[in-house]
Every structure is written in C-alpha cells, then in structure tokens.
Amino acid sequence: MDVAFIIGPAGSGKSMLTSALAYYLDQRRIFYATLNLDPAVEDPSLHYNPTIDARDWVKTSEIMKKFKLGPNGAIIASCDILAAHADKIKKAISELRADILIVDTPGQLEVFAFRPSGYEIFRTINEIEGTRSLILFLIDPFLCKSGLNAILSVLLLSSSIFWRFQLPVIDVVTKRDLLPSEELDKILYFLENPSAIFDELKEFPVRDIALEWEAMVAEFEEIFARKEIIAVSSETGEGIADLFAKMQEVWSKSGGVET
To answer: Which of 58, 127, 130, 218 is most buried as measured by Cβ atoms within 10 A of its Cβ?
Structure first.
C-alpha cells in the first residue's frame, strides 16, 4: 500500500488537497482510501467523505465539554486519546486493502508532527506490511509573501518534518490559482534556490548569525530545498496530475520506513 501523509500549517489546504487527490484517483478508478486524523474538524470544512475518520473514536468538541478545556488544550487531549486507538486505525486500514491511502493530518501541524501521540499513529500505520510512505508538505504561498525570511522559515520547517519522520518529502505549494503567475514564479524560485535568499537580503538584525546560516544553507542546499517543488490548485485541479506523477516516482524508489 502506498501512503501519503499530508502535513502543513493550519490553513495551508490539507483537506482541500486530500479532496482533490481523492477526486483525481476516483476519476482514474484507482482503489484508494482517505483517512481523516483531525478530531477537531467540522464537516463543512472537510471537503471530502473520509473512508476512515478519527471522529469515530474521539471528537474535540466533546472533549472540550467533558474536561472543560479550551480549543488548544482539547485538540492536544483528543489527539492523545486518538493515539490510544492507533491499533484500531491500523486494523481498519488493513481491512480495506486499498492501493493508495491519503492521510489528512490535524490542522495544527505541531500536534501531529512534534507530539508523541502523532508520531505513534504515524509509526503504527507504517507497521502495515508492504507500506511505502511519503509526506506532502504543504506551503501556503500567502505565508511566503510576507518576505524572503518567511520563505527561509518555511524551508526550515519542511526540513524539520523530514528529520522528524525520515521519509521522502515533496514540497507542495498550494492555492496557485489565487496568485498572479509572476508572484508565484518568484516564490517558487526562492523555494528552489534558498541560497539566493541571502543575496537579496542585505541587512539582518543579527548579522553574525545570518552569515552562519548563509554558509550552512549553501553547504546543505539539497537538504533545505527539494529538487522539485510542485505548485497545485485543489480548487481548479491545476498541478494535481504532476503531483501524482511525482508521488508515484517517489513511492517506486521508497522501501518504506523503519519502525
């Protein structure tokens, strides 16, 4: 089974991309399944009907009421509770015997990526025999518009996801239909050439530290920048075919993940 974990900051378009990929696979009659791992999501914003749904085991709205928690605390608590059902999630996935599994992760990236509960669910899914996994790291271009330092921060976050999960990462710029082509091309250029960011940024608040980062980025260019960054629109379908072709290429080279 080929698995794609969709990870990205809140509002980057994870559920929308899950829906777009599901539609693409459905049109081609590929046997796929979708897994919603966000217990806090409300139906109008989900955009697709998940094959397996975290809310069958825990709902953040109910956790808020039961334990009198605020939204952030309830999300953390509900994801911790969901991790206790990881084996049930694994069983449900195994019984489907789908060729492809698209995993829509929680809206708050840090809850899934950096807390033990998220990694436990990730590890358990990858225990399924024959699993080949990759990560789609979503980049919201509107975050990149705030400056070149923001683009560098996004690249560092993508790299941290790679080191956290030690899986192939495809960087995906979403919402391409909402930006003029010249703005999108500029963002893509700096995402693909992070060392060029330092050529443009002439002044840094802490210059010595910036020089150290510049040297490190130049030395480890391939770590900070993926060889190919794909821009897509989940709304119009632009770039989805290219993204899926890249996913197939990465899966074909992947031997799975050590657990």
So the answer is: 58
